Structure formats: structure tokens, C-alpha cells
Amino acid sequence: MFQDIQPHILDIQYKAKTIQNSDLIVIIRNGLILMLSDQNELRIPTLADLSKHYKIKLDQANYLLSIEGKGFYAFDLELPEKGGFAYADMRVLRTLAPRWLAFAMATAVHLANWYLQNRYCGHCAHLMEKGTDERKLVCPNCRMDVFPKISPVIIVGVRKQNQLLLTKYAEGYDHYASLQDLLKLVRHWKMQLKERFLRRRGWKLKIFTIIEVNRGHFPNLF
């Protein structure tokens, strides 16, 4: 599956890092992503690539994540197309190689979009500022904090013979529901489910069957 990136380690923890020339850059304009054509293949531009072709001050970078020693940063800029640089449809991320790089870039684009979509405070419309101790945006006017949104990324059906395991909320929703869980990006989903069921209930999951894969990192592309 697309998210099976082991043994590569994707680090999405917020850190105060200094951008390097070899780090990869995410720039988004009108839902398109800036890519660089290199020998008839599109690749992710580095800071060195941008500095060579665009004579502007490249500061105020937003650190997104790192993998294989390379950092991913986003700039809130609108650069023109020139010198092999062109804006491409997000679907181009599916064609990146190796696969772990494609997954890392898709994750970086998610975070970059979050910064763009929360440029202004939703309460008082003041310009937001970056938090210094964790990944968040802070309104200096009304002090509202905004964090990246998380959603369940997997729905689990646990079956024993002809019975299906369901759950009930403690309050607020008096009906049975399927199991949902939040998974970390850096580890295989099967390993995480096995460990969680064994740790919480002492159950051993044996056979895994994938029924359907959702749009994952590309929720707005279809």
C-alpha cells in the first residue's frame, strides 16, 4: 500500500530547524504544486534550485517534516513559472519515485495546505503567527490557538466466526458503531493494530483483509 514506507522513518514532529540548500520545498498556488522539470522528469525542487532561478529573499519557511535526512519546508509565495519550474496537478505526486518519497511529499503537502488555509484567524481575522513550542498557529489579537486537524484513518472490522465486534460510546450516541482508530504515519498499520488489541484487550489478530482503500492523501483530487 501507498503508506508502507518501512524501513524509512517519517518524522512529522515539530522542530525549530534551519533550512538547508538540499532541503525540499513545497509551494502551492490555486491547488497546484510547483515542480521542476529535470531531464523530462518532474521532481521536487530544493532550496538551492529556487535560489538559482528566483532572485528573491527566501525566508519565513515553515518546517513540515523530514525523512532520510532531508527536510521538507513550505513557503507562502506565488512564484511565476520559469526555467523548468511549472505548477502541476497534485496527481503528479503519485508518480514520484521512490515510493517513500511520494508518501513523504503527499504528507508535506497536507501540512503546507494547513498553513495556507489558516493564514488568518477564523475568529477575529487577524494575521496568525507560528507557535514556538509545537505545531500550531496563534492569533496575537484574540490568542486563539489552531492545531492541525486529525481524523480517523482506518475503520476496523474484527470478526470471530459469524460475529462482528462493535463498540458503543459512553455517552452522546446510543447506538453501536464500527471500530475506528488513529494511526501513526511512521509504522505499518497492521503492526499498530496488533499491538493495540493485544495491549488493551489481550486479543491476537490473525488475518487481515483490506476491503476498501479510501482517497488517503488525495481527498480533493477526484
What do you see in this structure?
The chain is α+β, with helices and mostly antiparallel strands. It contains three helices and 17 strands. The protein has helices at residues 47-53, 99-117, 189-201; strands at residues 10-11, 24-26, 28-29, 32-38, 41-43, 62-67, 70-74, 85-88, 129-130, 137-138, 145-146, 154-156, 159-160, 163-164, 167-168, 176-177, 179-181. The strands form six sheets. It has a four-stranded mixed beta sheet with strand order 1-6-7-2, covered by helices on one side. Strands 3, 4, 5 and 8 form a four-stranded antiparallel beta sheet that branches. A hairpin with a 2-residue loop joins strand 3 and strand 4 (32-38). The two termini are 19 Å apart.
List the helices and strands and how they pair.
Blueprint: E1 10-11, E2 24-26, E3 28-29, E4 32-38, E5 41-43, H1 47-53, E6 62-67, E7 70-74, E8 85-88, H2 99-117, E9 129-130, E10 137-138, E11 145-146, E12 154-156, E13 159-160, E14 163-164, E15 167-168, E16 176-177, E17 179-181, H3 189-201
Parallel strand pairs: 2-7
Antiparallel strand pairs: 1-6, 3-4, 4-5, 4-8, 6-7, 9-10, 10-11, 12-17, 13-14, 15-16
